[in-house]
Amino acid sequence: MPPHEPVREPTDSTLIRRFLDAGDEFAFRALHERHTPHLRMLLARLLGSQRDELDDIVQDAWLAGCRGLGTFNGTAQFSTWLTTIGIRAAWARLNAGRNGDGYASVSADSPEPDELAAPPLPATTTTIDLERALDRLNAHQRAVVVLHDVEGYTHAEIAEQLGLTPANSKVTLFRARGALRRMLDDGEPR
Amino acid sequence: MNDDLSSHERELFAALPRQSAADPIATERLVARLHAEGLVRKSESSASSAFTQRPSRRAPRIAVQLAAAVALFAVGALTGARIASRGSLERELARTDLGVADRVLLLQRAGSAYVTAANGYADATKRADSTAVEVANQVLRGAAHAVVRSSLNSRTASDILNVLQARDTTARKPILWY
């Protein structure tokens, strides 16, 4: 008797096709189960202290994704496409309460003098310390450092996601790292 | 702004968790919202991780088809049996509305049936079989007695009885009649 073939998980494109063709709830749940954990973690970091709105934003991202899934052309991965929707939803929520001068109005050419000499994080720093320090950054810096240093986005990609210029993203990252180092210089966020 | 991360900083960022489990209540709320908007329809199985184990809708359909096939076969067999038995010898013999001419024909059919049955039995055994001879004699003797009792042809019946009784005492051979 031949050995049993391993059960293959359906691909994203298979599930998407079933969702679009038949409104298959099962396919949707499979997609949701596969992609929500990463999306939720990423958005939680972006939201920082506004984390109580996390599940609303995750839902908004999925709703927007499902409504617009017919326009998903498959050139990018579905996870990338969905994450972009989620990041923009979170970013819009973070900017919703601000007056006129949104987070994007950061000077690209004038880092402050005290940011230039920030030493690297001490060896005693833990991931918990880092998480707490990230929460203490302002939303703009936190978004850039999370997308760049945690998620691995390029400055061009961050600029597109957040409506910045790549230069602005670089300056913001520089400042964010400096702020993190200063916060963690003595072993815990200040 | 040359600000590369140190190796320790890279390790710290790499060690941060990348996943956070979905809230089941939020998930169900989302699914309900999608239903309300008509974007999804209820599927047979909502067990999200058992994608390949969906229950088949074919099983009940096959059962119904099987039951229908059995019922159709039973009706066909019953109808066929009724058609086949409509002109059978047994059925005609049981009838009480027949005239004399019909009875004569039935008698002829019964005699032919007897001969056919006897020949068939002899062929099946491939040899002179004492049981076949005994059965044939008993049937023929019974028929002769019936003829005598009904006075249809007492001379013929008596002759048959005599022959049978004489042969019973001599040899046992396959019956050949007609």
Report on the structure:
The complex is a heterodimer of chains A (190) and B (178). Chain A has helices at 12-22, 25-47, 54-67, 78-96, 127-136, 139-150, 155-162, 166-184. Chain A is an all-alpha fold and 190 residues long. Chain A has two domains: 12-96, RNA polymerase sigma factor, region 2, helix turn helix motif (Rna Polymerase Sigma Factor, Chain: A); 113-184, Arc Repressor Mutant, subunit A, CATH 1.10.10. With 178 residues, chain B is an all-alpha fold. Among the domains of chain B are: 57-86; 99-169. Chain B is 66% helix and 0% strand. Chain B is built from seven helices and no strands. Residues 46-50 of chain B have low confidence and may be disordered. Classes of the chains: A mainly alpha (190), B mainly alpha (178).
What's the gist of this structure?
In chain A, 61% of the residues lie in helices and 0% in strands. Chain A has helices at residues 12-22, 25-47, 54-67, 78-96, 127-136, 139-150, 155-162, 166-184. Residues 99-110 of chain A have low confidence and may be disordered.
Number of domains of chain A: 2
Low-confidence stretches of chain A: 99-110
* Terminal-residue CA separation of chain A: 66 Å
Q: Could you tell me the strand content of chain A as a percent range? A: under 5%
Q: If you average the pLDDT of chain B, what whole number results? A: 73
Counted by DSSP, the helix tally of chain B is 7
The portion of residues forming beta strands of chain B comes to under 5%
Structure summary, number of beta strands of chain B? 0
Instruction: Report the strand count of chain A.
Output: 0
Which superfamily, in CATH terms, is the homologous superfamily of the largest domain in chain A?
A: RNA polymerase sigma factor, region 2, helix turn helix motif
* Oligomeric organization of the protein chains: heterodimer
Largest sheet of chain B: none
CATH fold descriptor of the largest domain in chain A: Rna Polymerase Sigma Factor, Chain: A
What is the structural class of chain B?
A: mainly alpha
| CATH C-level category of the largest domain in chain A | Mainly Alpha
Largest sheet of chain A: none
Topology of chain A as a string of helices (H) and strands (E): HHHHHHHH
Find the structural class of chain A using helix and strand composition. Answer: mainly alpha
Number of helices of chain A: 8
